[in-house]
């Protein structure tokens, strides 16, 4: 490819501006090369003759062709780098958007879970209070029934039992102390027999 670019550049040899550009580039490159050899490699300094015009045009045209190819390659590499970084940034943006969406969904689910947990606790407390109230009512009904004669304890000095179905965390609300039943009085006819 470099050769095809070089032959295309060589067609412009006849143009004076192009010739001057090629000659000045080649002469400057030649002087820099000689200066570096003298300074770095320690060669003795000698008088530097400029390049012939034909050789300078060939070297300058070669430099321009290689510079053009290098420039095109650099632009292609930079373009590919930019394109890949852009696609990576798009991918990163998509991942960030998906993460934000998942975090929002997680927050909504956590809020729902908190609300359900709070609702459960409220219902649990209400049911527990209702259960305690029903237990208290049932105990009172059993106690009233025992006192009212539903169960008879004739001829025994036993007091009426107190029934408690569930322990109370608070004090008992039944009025008054439990009274023992009076001992049966012997009938006058019982002594005679």
From TrEMBL:
Ranges in a coiled coil: 85-119
GO biological process: regulation of lipid metabolic process
Keywords from the named record: Coiled coil
InterPro entries reported for this sequence: OPA3-like
Disordered: annotated segments: 164-193
Pfam families: OPA3
GO terms under cellular component: mitochondrion
Superkingdom of the source species: Eukaryota
Family, similarity comment: Belongs to the OPA3 family.
Name of the protein in its database record: OPA3-like protein
């Amino acid at each position: 490819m470099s050769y095809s670019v070089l032959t295309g550049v060589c067609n412009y040899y006849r143009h004076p501006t192009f010739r001057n550009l090629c000659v000045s580039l080649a002469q400057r490159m030649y002087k820099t090369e000689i200066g570096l050899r003298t300074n770095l490699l320690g060669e003795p300094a000698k008088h530097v003759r400029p390049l012939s015009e034909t050789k300078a045009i060939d070297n300058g045209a070669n430099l321009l062709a290689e510079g053009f190819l290098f420039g095109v390659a650099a632009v292609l590499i930079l373009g590919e780098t930019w394109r890949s970084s852009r696609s990576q940034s798009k991918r990163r943006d998509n991942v960030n958007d998906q993460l934000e969406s998942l975090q929002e969904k997680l927050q909504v689910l956590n809020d729902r879970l908190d609300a359900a947990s709070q609702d459960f606790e409220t219902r649990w407390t209400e049911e527990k209070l209702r259960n305690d109230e029903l237990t208290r009512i049932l105990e009172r009904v059993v106690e009233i029934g025992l006192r009212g004669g539903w169960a008879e304890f004739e001829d025994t000095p036993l007091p009426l039992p107190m029934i408690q179905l569930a322990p109370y965390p608070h004090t008992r609300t039944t009025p008054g102390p439990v009274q023992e039943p009076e001992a049966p009085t012997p009938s006058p006819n019982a002594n005679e027999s």
